[in-house]
Amino acid sequence: xxxxxxxxxxxxxxxxxxxxxxxxxxxxxxxxxxxxxxxxxxxxxxxxxxxxxxxxxxxxxxxxxxxxxxxxxxxxxxxxxxxxxxxxxxxxxxxxxxxxxxxxxxxxxxxxxxxxxxxxxxxxxxxxxxxxxxxxxxxxxxxxxxxxxxxxxxxxxxxxxxxxxxxxxxxxxxxxxxxxxxxxxxxxxxxxxxxxxxxxxxxxxxxxxxxxxxxxxxxxxxxxxxxxxxxxxxxxxxxxxxxxxxxxxxxxxxxxxxxxxxxxxxxxxxxxxxxxxxxxxxxxxxxxxxxxxxxxxxxxxxxxxxxxxxxxxxxxxxxxxxxxxxxxxxxxxxxxxxxxxx
Length: 342
Hints:
Elements: E1 2-6, H1 10-25, E2 29-36, H2 38-46, E3 52-56, H3 62-83, E4 87-90, H4 94-103, E5 106-110, H5 117-123, E6 129-133, H6 139-142, E7 151-154, H7 160-163, E8 177-181, H8 197-208, E9 213-217, H9 221-231, E10 236-237, H10 244-249, E11 253-256, H11 260-267, E12 272-274, H12 281-288, E13 293-294, H13 298-310, H14 312-328, H15 332-340
Parallel strand pairs: 1-2, 1-4, 2-3, 4-5, 5-6, 6-7, 8-9, 8-11, 9-10, 11-12, 12-13
Helix pairs in contact: 1-2, 1-15, 3-4, 4-5, 8-13
């Protein structure tokens, strides 16, 4: 079988990587495309996942997003037509969905973010089979135009796809290390929001930079430049793309303004605080299960962070709880492979 994967983000690199290997080892012809997007392309290189780059990320501006998406759809059409896939696999890629539909190729789609309305509206109606975590109700998707019978749920959060096979050793740090992951500022679902996260992080850094090593992981070059100018030597701003799992394992505390790495840190048993300025199903599950704490103001963030760093018993319990939950989850990769073999 000829299988085409459109892999657009670092999360998707991690999520699909093992499936690509398993399918190739089973004799399938697998072709992977992506776009010019710093974190995804560099992480794929680190993980030795070969990608054919077509088009670019549109940035944060609506006009640029539309223009780049239209250009990528046109370019991708030619590339994919030459490959001639039997099935397309995407994590709700707007261009991937449109090209697959236009070429009459069956599309298997994955998505754990019905709150990302723009992407869902552009992809879910064109998806033949949608797979998602079990915590997302069918009603979250059917409103976008897909029948319940075409939705399959798996008993896992997406990071389980790589964490269940992770053998990265934990590195003991000589000092408290705090990892801060900045928000997905250029995502469509953030376009009309004015998050308070910058002010929260400012006050957190001011309070803790002398007693802990604060590492900041940005998503874009302009975020890197802004963080360096804003914090100077008080924060270690990472300039290069790194293996996120290794990075999380080296920290004693994780503060996330996004989704995937927050879930990853929580499932690794790291004390985790979410400061993302919206609500969604994955985070709600993590909060209800006690794997994540959430705060919306600076004072609470500082207080919670200090408590988590100093409470060894809490850290022990979190690790134990996370290991139990991760063990209970199934491997989403098995669902990917079994669905494609149907």
